């Protein structure tokens, strides 16, 4: 059909047969061919989400393309299978052995009334800086973040870099009451500092039941996590550092091995019908339903009891399922048995709602399996959109192999070019973190083994980034003036493949540096401005990216991802804010690529053109620039419209996320009028202070120069801007649970400004969840006025320009 449209409108190709040709997106290796609607292609969907006026295609002979693809695939050498020596050798019995039992079964844990116990033998290899005169061990059983029973402690024992106990700790929970996903947290404390922040020496989490469901009986000699306190959310993997404290302990072995046995599913009489409740209780339930709008609110014991008691009245409220599951007491088998019934009978959650159930609070394997089953309905685009959270949720799994692991692995292999590419680099960005290194590394190794021809692309990209890291480490020792020469010399000697895909974007194929256009940026950490020759045919425009070493780019990546989700929500509501969320790709520890925003200039550069002082107070700053680069009245009007939509989108996004450290150096304007923010080093209301003075008091960056582009505060365009902001805010308010979930799932990253759930409070406050839609609009109008009138913003801009001009 597309081919016929070209012939009809362009009057060319009448003699060509569409079946013999395919289209290639210019500048990439993206092919459009086959009996598919054009919207099914990723590149077309991405184009439609942008505001680019034209999409350029090249017409290629289909047979030539097939030949090229076949030659590439046929040249691929699969990894060799293990040799006979590398395989596990089967056990050969030299004599006929008669079995003592026809079948050895496990003893059901439901019948074991013994209390779970641990024999603590001792701890060894305690680092000198953490050593003490006396130590004590604390052990407790957890399910998610909930402690099951009271913790138990050993007696104090004298020691130095090692300590012995040989003491039996009998915990307060019977084996029959322990859920399948429970873990034991064992922590070593300095006895003299117990109860203080410095008191924790090391800790480790051990699953009560192993992967196959047997109680983890036997002697264990494990490496603990130094300097960490009891953390039920910490991985169940051992520490692999050489200086890790070692603990020797034993979980007693019983006459028969104890196996987890799920209780029989029985529906109690009357449990499926509503119970007669009083008017007061009905009011309480309605109030609890409203409480869902504050996703950070913790339920009291009374609330949990009320929710659980009337759980069957809430089946039609999908948003209440997480609260009901949080209300279950996992020490009561009958309540634990209810989980399966609730999951079967509850109205099915949407995939976005199911993300909540991947939080560490929901440890039950049935709940997590249920969530993954719902995620199956996600499209590849949606999985890529939420990839950060899905990879982080792997940390919350009890075992390395889990339904979520299988889901990501399979979908990544099904679509390796985009989804698999993003999955690989997301895992690599955190594979250096000690407590998750083994899990992520094993995932990556197995993923590479199954990814076919894409394995070489991923490995090439990884080797390329490591070469850049090594070069940066050498150049950091030099001054900026002395670094450019060695930098370009090193690039000219880089051993690049003939063609390879840039890690930043798997669609882009490059074959060489344009060395004279590459440079070392004038910054302490020497970021690289890299310019590549585009290997795609008939393309003259080079490809530019930044590569940084020494900065943790994960916070920038998270901020831009949440903004992309906001944009996705707005589009679903029929609104397009023309936002340009540029790409950021962390590739390892404090390293990664940043997309260069094309045809853009910073507010700082525009202000300095007018003069360091005069530029800050120049209200026609943006208007003058847009008139200068857009010479026709039509283009100027289009630029103003782009500015209105994009500045409204960024206003709401940056205000809700509490983006701080805004100055002219991280505000940009593109020649077609698109307004955007860059560099998100501070968020969630962590505004910078100096000597106790808060330098920023504007809720978001919107200066009189921005107003001037839209006319004036009483003009129609500015009124429309206010209306757009209000509408955008109310869409986010309706999706507050999703936004909170995105950040909750990222608590385990170690990002300094996102350490605990309360850090997200700023965002929920800025969503005005306790107000109506009209009241929220009025509140945002007030914030807009504060931003326009902020004198601190002008002073901050002035001080910044003076500092960078020195």
UniProtKB/TrEMBL annotation:
Signal sequence bounds: none
InterPro entries: ARM-type_fold (IPR016024), C2_domain_sf (IPR035892), Kinase-like_dom_sf (IPR011009), PI3/4_kinase (IPR015433), PI3/4_kinase_cat_dom (IPR000403), PI3/4_kinase_cat_sf (IPR036940), PI3/4_kinase_CS (IPR018936), PI3K-type_C2_dom (IPR002420)
Gene Ontology MF: a single term: ATP binding
Gene Ontology BP, a term: regulation of locomotion
E.C. numbers: 2.7.1.137
One Pfam match: PI3K_C2
All copies of domain PIK helical, residue ranges: 273-450
Domain C2 PI3K-type: 112-257
Example of a GO cellular component annotation carried by this entry: cytoplasm
Residue ranges annotated for the PI3K-RBD domain, each copy included: 1-60
Keywords attached to this entry: ATP-binding, Kinase, Nucleotide-binding, Transferase
Domain PI3K/PI4K catalytic: 514-792
UniProt family annotation: Belongs to the PI3/PI4-kinase family.
Protein name, UniProt field: phosphatidylinositol 3-kinase
Source organism of the structure: Trichomonas vaginalis (strain ATCC PRA-98 / G3)
Phylogenetic lineage: Eukaryota, Metamonada, Parabasalia, Trichomonadida, Trichomonadidae
């Amino acid at each position: 059909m597309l081919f016929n449209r070209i012939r009809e409108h362009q009057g060319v190709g009448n003699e060509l047969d569409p079946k013999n040709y395919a289209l290639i997106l210019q500048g990439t290796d993206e092919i459009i061919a086959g009996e598919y609607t054009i919207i099914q292609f990723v590149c077309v969907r991405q184009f439609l989400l942008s505001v680019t006026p034209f999409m350029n295609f090249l017409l290629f002979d289909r047979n030539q393309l097939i030949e090229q693809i076949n030659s590439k695939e046929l040249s691929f050498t699969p990894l060799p299978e293990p040799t006979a020596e590398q395989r596990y050798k089967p056990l050969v019995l030299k004599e006929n052995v008669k079995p003592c039992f026809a079948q050895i079964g496990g003893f059901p844990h439901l019948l074991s009334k013994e209390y779970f116990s641990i024999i603590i033998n001792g701890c060894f290899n305690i680092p000198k800086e953490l050593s003490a005169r006396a130590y004590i061990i604390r052990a407790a059983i957890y399910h998610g973040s909930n402690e099951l029973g009271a913790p138990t402690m050993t007696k104090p024992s004298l020691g130095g870099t090692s300590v012995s106990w040989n003491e039996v700790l009998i915990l307060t929970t019977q084996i029959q009451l322990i859920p399948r996903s429970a873990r034991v947290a064992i922590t070593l404390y300095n006895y003299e500092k117990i109860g203080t922040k410095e008191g924790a020496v090391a800790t480790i989490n051990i699953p009560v039941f192993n992967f196959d469901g047997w109680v983890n009986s036997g002697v264990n000699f494990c490496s603990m996590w130094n300097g960490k306190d009891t953390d039920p959310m910490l991985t169940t993997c051992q520490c692999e550092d050489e200086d890790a404290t070692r603990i020797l302990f034993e979980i007693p072995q019983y006459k028969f091995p104890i196996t987890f046995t799920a209780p029989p599913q029985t529906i109690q009489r009357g449990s499926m019908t509503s119970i007669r409740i009083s008017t007061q209780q009905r009011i309480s339930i309605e109030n609890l339903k409203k409480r869902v709008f504050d996703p950070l609110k913790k339920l009291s014991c009374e609330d949990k009891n009320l929710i659980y008691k009337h759980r069957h009245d809430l089946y039609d409220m999908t948003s209440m399922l997480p609260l009901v599951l949080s209300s279950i007491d996992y020490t009561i088998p009958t309540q634990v048995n209810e989980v399966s019934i609730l999951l079967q009978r509850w109205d099915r959650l949407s995939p976005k709602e199911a993300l909540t159930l991947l939080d560490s609070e929901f440890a039950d394997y049935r709940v997590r399996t249920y969530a993954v089953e719902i995620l199956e309905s996600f499209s590849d685009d949606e999985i890529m959109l939420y990839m950060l959270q899905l990879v982080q949720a792997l940390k919350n799994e009890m075992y390395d192999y889990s339904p979520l692991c299988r889901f990501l692995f399979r979908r990544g292999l099904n679509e390796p070019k985009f989804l698999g590419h993003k999955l690989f680099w997301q895992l690599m960005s955190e594979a250096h973190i000690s407590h998750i290194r083994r899990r992520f590394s094993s995932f990556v190794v197995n993923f590479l083994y199954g990814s076919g021809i894409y394995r070489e692309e991923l490995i090439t990209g990884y080797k390329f980034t490591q070469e850049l890291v090594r070069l940066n480490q050498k150049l950091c020792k030099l001054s900026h003036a002395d670094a450019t020469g060695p930098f370009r010399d090193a690039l000219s000697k880089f051993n690049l493949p003939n063609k390879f895909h840039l890690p930043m974007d798997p669609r882009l194929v490059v074959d060489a540096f344009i060395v004279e256009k590459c440079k070392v940026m004038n910054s302490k950490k020497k970021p690289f401005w890299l310019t590549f020759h585009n290997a795609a045919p008939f393309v003259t425009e080079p490809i530019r990216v930044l590569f940084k070493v020494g900065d943790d780019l994960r916070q920038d990546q998270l901020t831009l991802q949440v903004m992309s989700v906001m944009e996705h929500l707005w589009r679903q509501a029929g609104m397009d804010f023309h936002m340009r969320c540029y790409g950021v790709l962390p590739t390892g520890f404090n390293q990664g690529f940043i997309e260069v925003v094309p045809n853009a200039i910073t507010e700082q550069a525009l202000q300095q053109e007018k003069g360091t002082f005069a530029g800050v107070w120049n209200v026609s700053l943006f208007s003058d620039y847009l008139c200068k680069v857009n010479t026709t009245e039509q283009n100027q009007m289009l630029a103003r419209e782009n500015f209105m939509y994009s500045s409204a989108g960024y206003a709401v996004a940056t205000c809700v996320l509490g983006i701080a450290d805004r100055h002219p150096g991280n505000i940009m304007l593109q020649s077609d009028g698109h307004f955007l923010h860059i560099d998100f080093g501070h968020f969630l209301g962590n505004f910078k202070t100096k000597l106790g003075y808060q330098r920023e008091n504007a809720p978001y960056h919107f200066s009189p120069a921005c107003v001037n582009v839209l006319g004036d505060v009483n003009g129609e365009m500015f009124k429309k801007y206010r209306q757009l902001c209000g509408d955008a805010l109310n869409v986010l308010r309706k999706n507050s649970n999703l936004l909170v979930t995105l950040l909750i799932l990222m608590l385990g990253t170690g990002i300094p400004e996102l350490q605990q759930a309360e850090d997200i409070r700023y965002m929920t406050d800025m969503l005005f969840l306790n107000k109506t839609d009209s009241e929220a609009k009025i509140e945002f109008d007030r914030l807009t006025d504060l931003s326009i009138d902020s004198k601190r913003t002008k002073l901050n801009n002035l001080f910044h320009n003076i500092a960078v001009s020195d």
